[in-house]
Amino acid sequence: MTSIEMTELAAANKRIAELEAELAIHRRASELLGKVVPQKTV
């Protein structure tokens, strides 16, 4: 693996970690909102 590829891989892994953290925040917010806001019935 070249140094450029290693740099790109490190950047990609960092971005994946950031997106996973963001997703966890959104999931938690969704859980909290689900407890506060009643779901609509169709």
What are the defining features of this structure?
mainly alpha; rod-shaped; 42 residues
General description of the model:
The protein has one domain (1-36). The chain is an all-alpha fold. It is built from 1 helix and no strands. The chain is rod-shaped and about 55 Å long. It is 81% helix and 0% strand. The longest helix is centred in the middle third of the chain and has 34 residues, at 3-36. It has one helix at 3-36. The chain starts with a helix and ends in a 6-residue tail after the last helix.
Quick recap:
The chain has one helix at residues 3-36. The protein is an all-alpha fold and 42 residues long. It has one domain (1-36).
